[in-house]
Amino acid sequence: MNTRKLLLVLACAGTLCFSHGANALLFSGSNGTLSASADFEILAGNFLQVTLTNTSTGDPSAPGDILSGLLFNLVGNPALSKDSAVLGAGSTVIHGPTPSTDPGGVVGGEWAYTNTDPNFPSGVNEAIYSAGYFDGNARFPGNNLQDPDSVDGIEYGITTVNDAAANDNGGIKTQGLIQNQVVFTLDNFTGSLGDISNVSFQYGTALTETNIPGTPGVPDSGTTAMLLGSALVGLGMLRRYLKH
User: Fold this and answer.
1) 17-20, long-range: CB within 8 Å, 24+ apart, which pairs?
2) Strands 177-179 and 158-159
3) Alpha-carbon distance 226 to 130, whole Å?
């Protein structure tokens, strides 16, 4: 490969990293020992992928410690269709039934999405949730893994990777809980990341429980910036080499 081609490859790598970063935006929030993140990413084909993670390092002991929903606002309130809800990488179900997921880690039967509900807080028109504070029948594709059939209670909410059974109270010790994260895919999204606002993380089984506002941060948890930086470093090294 000649010098010009090498420079072109490095330049393209940097451009690709930057372009991907433009299609993803991370929101995060914390309150005391509770913390969570939501990574919104626009995928080809008008898909909006949302990765919801319980980022706390604590050991939950009650339903109020469990992440059960994501609330946000979309400009124009588009009616998105529910494509899938699956366990994220390295995630698992504890205290759950057998089998604890559908094939492929699908947990859609225990999560719901709606953009039409009279109980929405002011400034919110979209919700992804596992508790019954909105329409319990607006489920993602998938089987009912733990009763009741409609989305209700704390089952299949998201707990931390450090959740141990020893201190769990009766509200969660027999309920299936997801450790770490769930990846949701919604279809028919034709907007941009700039359309997303008022992101917040809901805990427990009622809207009166802890709600943590989300703050926009670095796309892809900093991965894009790291890759772009590596490309630029490589380009600088190559230029220095060519001078010798």
Assistant:
1) 17/224, 17/227, 17/228, 17/231, 18/224, 18/228, 20/219, 20/220, 20/224
2) parallel
3) 34
DSSP state of 106: B
What residue numbers bound the domain in which 161 lies? 32-213
- In whole angstroms, what is the distance from residue 109 CA to residue 111 CA? 6
User: Is beta strand 67-74 parallel, antiparallel or unpaired with respect to 196-203?
Assistant: antiparallel
Is residue 39 located within the same domain as residue 21? no
Rounded to whole angstroms, how far apart are CA atoms 89 and 210?
26
Q: Do the beta carbons of residue 158 and residue 38 sit within 8 Å?
A: no
Give every strand in the sheet of 181-187, ordered side by side: 81-87, 181-187, 47-54, 34-43, 24-31, 215-216
Query: One digit per residue, pLDDT tens: the chain, 244 residues?
Result: 444 433 333 333 343 333 345 689 999 999 999 999 999 999 999 999 999 999 999 999 999 999 999 999 999 999 999 999 999 999 999 998 999 999 999 999 999 999 999 999 999 999 999 999 999 999 999 999 999 999 999 999 999 999 987 888 878 988 999 999 999 999 999 999 999 999 999 999 999 999 999 999 855 443 443 343 444 334 343 344 444 4
Q: Is residue 218 part of a domain?
A: no
Residues 135, 153 within the same domain: yes
Same domain, 12 and 101: no
